[in-house]
Design a protein that fits this description.
- This protein is an all-alpha fold.
- The protein folds into two domains: 173 residues, Up-down Bundle (Growth Hormone, Chain: A), CATH 1.20.1250; 189 residues, Up-down Bundle (Growth Hormone, Chain: A).
- Helices cover 77% and strands 0% of the residues.
- The chain is built from 19 helices and no strands.
- Helix 6 runs antiparallel to helix 11.
- The radius of gyration is 21 Å and the shape is globular.
């Protein structure tokens, strides 16, 4: 079962990788304006958030396998919709109800469903590490695959047909999944763990808001403006940061087994934030790059531990809702902060967003540690970590 989930994540990551690059070019080629492209891109993010919330609110009423099969068919329909329509309003509707993901990461309806299935593993953090790693690497390959129209002469529209075919392949893959059933369907999506989930969602939103201050595009702009870094140099630098981030996630499982999931999140995150603050204050270009690379080696180790922790501290029946209700606020919070970074850059405060990001993330880590350092062990004693 886990192998099928990981293969599905890889297929979707590859599709998301090329669609994120192809989408704006395709819409402009259809004759849409830049504003319309932005509106459709926003609709994809909001639509993903709403469908993910819907899974959290009502998904407990259905079997997970059926929801995953339905999501795969929705992915195929989304690709065919974008390939078949050429005018703004039909594309906007498809974007709002479909599965397109123009951002990095798995910000889609699949995420809470995958997490629920993966939570049945005995070593959750190790499995979540592989899941995150596979998605990151497949997304990078998908971004390279966005050059297929230029290399082979196929149309941009054909890329959306390819996206639909990936959706069908995922559907066929999911046909072989078992259906983890709970003994009794709950009356509400969240029961005894409601308070924990809301507190985690609030803390994760702070972390995501801070991360949104230093998105890769904004960090690249900072390097361009402060050090005159070339575009080619930036591309090479972000390749290495992405590779380090992806590979480091594989270490999260062994580390979490040794020191615990909360400790893994906190004690790798704080040093990475200190590296970011140090980079903001450093004057040497070489030192800045070294600090940012070290940050990349540490900053994403919390991702698989975070997903595994959420699945550990809730009951099996609450897992789809918990994954949804902790993911969507993160996405919405991260969407708010880039505008602030742009304003700070425009005001000449070039280091301020990096420092603010580091400080907020450290505050989040301290709050997370204070609130949940004993919860992991207590939940295990209560028997809620059973599969």
């Amino acid at each position: 079962m886990i192998r099928r989930i990981l293969i599905g994540r890889a297929l979707r990551g590859f599709a998301d990788g090329f669609i994120a690059v192809v989408l704006p070019a395709y819409l402009l080629a259809l004759g849409l304006g830049i504003l319309e492209v932005g509106i459709i891109s926003t609709a994809t993010l909001l639509g993903s958030a709403l469908t993910t919330l819907a899974v959290g609110r009502w998904g407990h009423r259905f079997h997970i396998r059926r929801l995953m099969l339905a999501a795969a068919l929705l992915m195929a329909a989304t690709g065919l919709g974008f390939a078949g329509f050429s005018s703004f309003w039909p594309l906007l509707v498809v974007a709002a109800v479909g599965t397109l993901n123009p951002s990095s990461g798995d910000a889609s309806v699949f995420m809470p469903l995958d997490h629920t299935m993966l939570a049945t593993a005995s070593d959750r953090t190790a499995v979540f590490s592989r899941y995150t790693f596979v998605g990151s690497m497949a997304g990078a390959l998908g971004a390279l695959g966005s050059g297929l129209p230029e290399w082979t002469g196929i149309s941009l529209r054909a890329m959306f047909v390819l996206y639909a075919l990936v959706g069908l392949a995922v559907w066929l893959l999911y046909l072989g999944l078992p259906d983890p059933r709970v003994e009794e369907k709950p009356a509400a999506p969240l029961g005894p763990s409601r308070g924990i989930v809301w507190r985690l969602a609030a803390l994760f939103s702070i972390d995501s808001f801070a991360g949104g201050l230093v998105l890769n595009s904004l960090l690249a702009l900072w390097l361009f403006q402060r050090f005159g870094m070339s575009l080619a140099g930036a591309g090479t630098f972000f390749f290495w940061t992405g590779l380090l981030s992806a590979c480091s996630q594989l270490a999260a499982g062994p580390l979490a087994r040794r020191i615990g999931m909360v400790n893994t999140m906190v004690f790798t995150h704080i040093p990475s934030s200190l590296c970011l603050i140090g980079a903001a204050l450093a004057n040497s270009f070489e030192l800045v790059l070294a600090l940012l690379l070290l940050r990349s080696l540490l900053s994403q180790m919390d991702v698989p531990a975070r997903g595994a922790f959420v699945m550990t501290v809730v009951t099996p029946a609450e897992r789809p809702a918990a994954a949804s209700f902790t993911a969507v606020p993160r996405s919405l919070a991260a969407a708010l902060s880039p505008t602030l970074t742009g304003a700070m850059f425009a005001a000449g405060a070039m280091a301020a967003p990096l420092i603010a990001c580091g400080v907020l993330k450290i505050a989040y880590d301290i709050a997370l540690f204070a609130a949940f350092r004993r919860v992991e062990a207590r939940r295990a004693d209560e028997g809620l970590t059973t599969n």
